[in-house]
Design brief:
alpha+beta
Length: about 290
């Protein structure tokens, strides 16, 4: 679409700082209809080189059409592709019409996601494994404390991340409607989802059943799902401190989960812990190596 047409589409002056734009219409083919389209006919996502956060910048009416306009930084869009934290951005990228893309940035990102080759797949599998582990551990702790509803919520989230792992492992990019993807794969994780949500057992029994399945999955999938991270540890001979690991741009997205992953990998002897005396801290500092 011509730039002049984009200006008409928005019913406003085109943002000169934008490096790309996508329009998502309410009658599109996406299975998951963006929540931003609620009571709007169209979402226009304007991509910018800088800016880590997305923000709504305007609601417009052109004739009978209502348009929601979203401005997003390129770094945030790339992060959302890996983390899946912003379904709205992913839906716009994959299902919207690219209307302004002079540097073909949006086209390349869409092609990368649709191809879903390495290393994107490995990075996503590690991300989902880390979050799966974190939610599983929290569910166990809540259940031990007698907080059944909180435990249920955490194990449900653990299943969600497990589902995204399974879809990724099957060679597909996890879409916002991930449970429909898992159902089509006839995967055991979907049966666990049904067992947790509709079974006639007590809540505690359902949680415990899924926790047992999660524990088994953690052990069986750990090596494959953490391959990207294990390769990162191999990149240098010196052991890594957790602070050094968190300085890596790809690991900032798993900062809350990384301690859980490191301990789990060490307990399974997939990585080694090395303790060295720290004068500053007055104790032993743990570093990690392959």
């Amino acid at each position: 679409m011509e730039l002049s047409n984009l200006t008409l589409l928005n019913g406003d002056i085109f943002d000169a700082n934008a490096i790309g734009a996508i329009a998502l219409n309410s009658q599109g083919k996406a299975l998951f209809q963006s929540a931003l389209l609620h009571e709007f006919d169209r979402v226009v996502m304007l991509l910018h080189e800088n800016g880590g956060e997305n923000r709504l910048v305007g609601n417009m009416i052109s004739g009978e059409l209502r348009t929601q306009t979203l401005r997003v930084g390129l770094s945030m869009l790339k992060r959302s592709i890996i983390t899946g934290d912003n379904n709205e951005l992913i839906t716009c990228l994959l299902e919207g019409e690219i209307i302004w893309d002079p540097q073909e940035i949006l086209e390349r990102l869409r092609t990368e996601v649709n191809a879903f080759d390495q290393p994107l797949r490995e990075r996503m599998m590690f991300m989902e494994f880390a979050r799966f582990l974190h939610m599983y551990v929290k569910s166990k702790r809540y259940l031990q404390a007698g907080c059944s509803m909180d435990s249920y919520n955490c194990i449900l989230m653990a299943l969600y991340h497990w589902a995204r792992m399974e879809v990724s492992e099957a060679g597909h990019y996890p879409t916002p409607a991930v449970w429909e993807q898992v159902k089509s794969l006839n995967n055991s994780v979907y049966k666990l989802y049904e067992e947790l949500t509709v079974s006639g057992e007590t809540m505690e029994q359902r949680i415990q059943l899924v926790q047992l399945a999660c524990e088994f999955s953690l052990v069986s999938k750990m090596s494959d799902c953490c391959k990207w991270f294990l390769d990162l540890l191999k990149e240098r001979k010196e052991p890594w401190s957790i602070e050094e690991l968190l300085m890596h741009s790809e690991l900032k997205n798993v900062e809350p989960e990384l301690p859980f992953v490191l301990r789990k990998l060490a307990s399974r002897s997939l990585i080694r812990e090395i303790a060295s005396w720290s004068d500053a801290g007055g104790g032993y500092r743990i570093r990690y190596t392959f």
